[in-house]
Write a structure and sequence with these properties.
Elements lengths: L17 H23 L6 E6 L2 E7 L9 E8 L2 E8 L9 E8 L2 E7 L5 H4 L9 E4 L4 E6 L11 E2 L2 E3 L21
Antiparallel strand pairs: 1-2, 1-8, 2-9, 3-4, 3-5, 4-10, 5-6, 7-8
Length: about 180
């Protein structure tokens, strides 16, 4: 077989067949169409839902578009009580207890600080689209973006709350022997 010439029926010199080329073209086309679909149908959220261990703690709407200030929300556990509070634009972290601090600005939610050992939630990128979330596994905390007024209870636009954790172990003080994400120390 000579270079550049066809060998057997429908086969190129390097063993590539027409069907192989067609399969690659179809896969690339499917990937491009999927990407276009995801970009065109991405919906920005307007509601933030905070939950711990599957139980909803707070639901609030994003600040109005004209408000440029970053709003900070503090989630902390002290004496078995988990509380979510709006710190305004000046966050204050209380002494003692486990905490997560996240901010909301311009339709984007970002985890600013946490006292968990692994800091994965803090290093997570900011979220803004419906269905995106930031999760803190040690604190079992989920900050999720949703849409619509149906998620807001009652007539209030913002709700912050408390939850009694009862006998839940405070996971923020991990033991030194415990592995972190499968890494043996």
């Amino acid at each position: 077989m000579q270079n550049g010439k066809r060998g057997q029926q429908g086969q190129f010199p390097d063993g590539i067949r027409k069907a192989d080329i067609a399969l690659v073209v179809v896969c690339v086309l499917a990937a491009v169409l999927t990407g276009v679909f995801l970009i065109l149908y991405r919906r920005e959220g307007d509601v933030v839902r905070v939950s711990c261990d599957g139980e909803q703690l707070a639901v609030f709407a994003f600040p109005a578009a004209g408000i440029q200030d970053r709003q900070y929300y503090l989630v902390w556990v002290e004496d078995g009580q988990m509380t979510v509070s709006n710190c305004g634009n000046a966050p204050v972290i209380p002494d003692g207890g486990a905490f997560n601090l996240f901010s909301v600005a311009d339709g984007v939610v970002r985890m600013e600080a946490a006292d968990c050992r692994d800091q994965i939630c803090v290093r997570h990128r900011a979220v803004s689209a419906v269905g995106e979330s930031i999760i803190c596994l040690p604190h079992k905390l989920v900050v999720e973006i949703t849409t619509g007024e149906a998620h807001l209870r009652g007539t209030e636009k913002e709700q912050t709350g408390q939850r009694n954790l009862g006998d839940r172990k405070d996971n923020s003080q991990d033991s030194a022997e415990e592995t972190l994400d499968g890494v043996v120390e």
